[in-house]
Write a structure and sequence with these properties.
Helix content: 25-40%
Function: Removes the 2'-phosphate from RNA via an intermediate in which the phosphate is ADP-ribosylated by NAD followed by a presumed transesterification to release the RNA and generate ADP-ribose 1''-2''-cyclic phosphate (APPR>P). May function as an ADP-ribosylase.
Number of helices: 6
Oligomer: single chain
Family: Belongs to the KptA/TPT1 family.
Order of helices and strands: HEHHEEEHEHEHEEE
Structural class: alpha+beta
Organism: Nonomuraea zeae
Number of domains: 2
CATH architecture of the largest domain: Alpha-Beta Barrel
Distance between the termini: 44 Å
Number of strands: 9
EC number: 2.7.1.-
Keywords: NAD, Transferase
Strand order of the largest sheet: 1-3-2
Shape: elongated
């Protein structure tokens, strides 16, 4: 499968497994799962046929591991705007995590901290390089350093998705280090 087709399928999956499942008649279970055969049938019924082999290739080759397949079911690993409980355990984070953003959001972040906005959690990266790539999707990346260890010590909960993204309900501004 060529790269353009892989990208189209990945974007289709993101839209319907994270944000708008009902648009193609999908009903996610409480943890965000849907049977693979139901997804493939719904996609075909709505004019976007995907083969099982294509689906597996997209899931397996996605560098960000955005999707997981288990027991004949598929779900997005994180980033949902629809209500789901990913059933991820609370974990102790590393001392430092990172968040990629762009300059136009810095004033609000300095005042309010990092908020999930339309998603369920704030997404944090385990390394500066990943945060830079995330921030660069919206312009020139600005990487914030998050004092995750201190947050955890003061009672804030962290979870880690299947693809290694750390999730927090909110990051207050006092735990953020801004670039000079």
């Amino acid at each position: 499968m060529d790269e353009r087709r892989m990208i189209r399928i990945s974007k289709y999956l993101a839209r319907h497994l994270r944000h708008d499942p009902q648009r193609i008649g999908l009903t996610l279970d409480e943890h965000g799962w849907v049977p693979v055969d139901v997804l493939l049938r719904a996609a075909a019924d709505h004019g976007f046929a995907i083969t099982a082999a294509e689906l597996w290739q997209v899931v397996e080759s996605n560098d960000k591991r955005r999707y997981a397949i288990e027991d004949g079911r598929i779900r997005a690993s994180q980033g949902h705007s629809v209500p789901v409980d990913l059933d991820l355990p609370v974990l102790e984070p590393p001392e430092v995590l990172y968040h990629g953003t762009v300059g136009r959001f810095l004033a609000a972040i300095k005042e309010e901290g990092l908020r999930p906005m339309s998603r369920h959690h704030v997404h944090l990266s385990p390394d500066r390089e990943t945060a830079t790539r995330v921030g660069a999707r919206r312009g020139v990346a600005v990487v914030l350093v998050v004092a995750a260890g201190a947050m955890h010590a003061e009672g804030h909960e962290f979870r880690r998705s299947a693809n290694g993204v750390w999730l927090a309900a909110h990051v207050p501004p006092g735990y953020l280090r801004f670039p000079s």
